[in-house]
């Protein structure tokens, strides 16, 4: 009996000791977690020792990563590394000399009396030495310098430009056969989804062959071009860091295919603030062949400026608040829209609001982007489009024959193509 009691006492003491040890360990973990959330300036805390467990995990300063997660991180890093090795010799730095002084969309001029503009580009056809870049990178220049990852620099001539899509094509004129470069393949930007991982490679701030990564933040954006007075449709928005000098460089998917051409950022400081824009590869695939053969591309044009129909505006116009469409603000004289009979708002006149466009070729129009994207993606110069408008409560079908968009137009960023 006494032996049994003694054994129980001993067991109780051992259990109490173990519990005390566990409380101390848990308390240490809690203290580290709390101290790690304090501002900089607290006393240095020694990290907890790494502990291997049956799940093959490690713990340091309260962060636990198991072996599976670590393997996934290593695999992701390996993918990025392999993509960089695959494309690094096909991404170039472009230096163009310009006489005028003025900022660009992304890649400001710098230097003395004659300004130099830095940007990026990528090899479209290695056999012919063709390079794709942004128009604003080479604007005002006929020849540029192209520098590869090797550090070797070659001359190139501008063979095609399209200010309306901000695309340009160069051709290397020097012997570059010593470069181990390859043509980059275009991916399908039409299949992109928000959240997909992407990679940007370029020369930000003249830091050659820099790589950043992020995700697709959104697709189908409109990128206003105030200088040209129109908007580029179907733009890719990404949070992959894009800075001055990245312009013209490739935006890649995780297979290493080009899904966009980095073009602009949204920033109040001129530096990256988490919102970057790239011209989609489907636009590149449509326009670049014409730049190579003809040196230019004719964009189909309707000739309107408009605003999206909001609930309050619909109510003011006597329409149901849930009405959708685009209110025509103005029509360019002599444009396809003008010839077709589309009416815009007349200042100080008898027409307080223009036609409300509700469909194009039978496709519902909810916003201005619907009109611009449809005309740009699906139509060519000379094609006819049927514009359905609501005028004074009546639905009318008007047929317009699309013309080539003028390089300079008085329409602002809401120009409907």
Task: Name a few traits of the molecule.
alpha+beta; 7 helices; disordered N terminus; 6-stranded antiparallel beta barrel; 417 residues
Short description:
This protein is an alpha+beta fold. The protein has helices spanning 2-35, 67-87, 135-138, 281-293, 311-316, 336-340, 368-378, and strands spanning 57-60, 63-66, 91-98, 110-111, 115-125, 130-133, 143-147, 153-162, 167-172, 197-202, 210-225, 230-238, 250-252, 258-265, 276-280, 300-301, 304-308, 326-331, 356-360, 363-364, 384-391, 394-401, 403-404.
Overview of the molecule:
By secondary structure, the protein is an alpha+beta fold. Helix content is 23%, strand content 33%. It is built from 7 helices and 23 strands. It has helices at 2-35, 67-87, 135-138, 281-293, 311-316, 336-340, 368-378, and strands at residues 57-60, 63-66, 91-98, 110-111, 115-125, 130-133, 143-147, 153-162, 167-172, 197-202, 210-225, 230-238, 250-252, 258-265, 276-280, 300-301, 304-308, 326-331, 356-360, 363-364, 384-391, 394-401, 403-404. A 6-stranded antiparallel barrel has the order 3-5-6-9-8-7. It has a 6-stranded antiparallel barrel with strand order 10-11-12-15-14-13. Strand 13 and strand 14 form a beta hairpin.
Q: How large is the radius of gyration? A: 30 Å
Mind summarizing the main beta sheet? Answer: 6 strands, antiparallel, barrel
Overall residue-averaged pLDDT value: 80
Question: What percentage of amino acids are in beta strands?
Answer: 25-35%
Uncertain residue ranges: 1-58, 409-415
> Kindly, what is the distance between the CA atoms of the first and last residues, rounded to a whole number of angstroms?
99 Å
Number of strands: 23
Total of DSSP H or I helical runs spanning 4+ residues: 7
Strand order of the largest sheet: 3-5-6-9-8-7
- Which range best describes the helical content: under 10%, 10-25%, 25-40%, 40-55%, 55-70% or over 70%? 10-25%
Shape: globular
Task: State the secondary-structure class.
Answer: alpha+beta
Oligomeric status of the shown chains?
A: single chain
Q: Write the H/E string, N to C.
A: HEEHEEEEHEEEEEEEEEHEEHEHEEHEEE
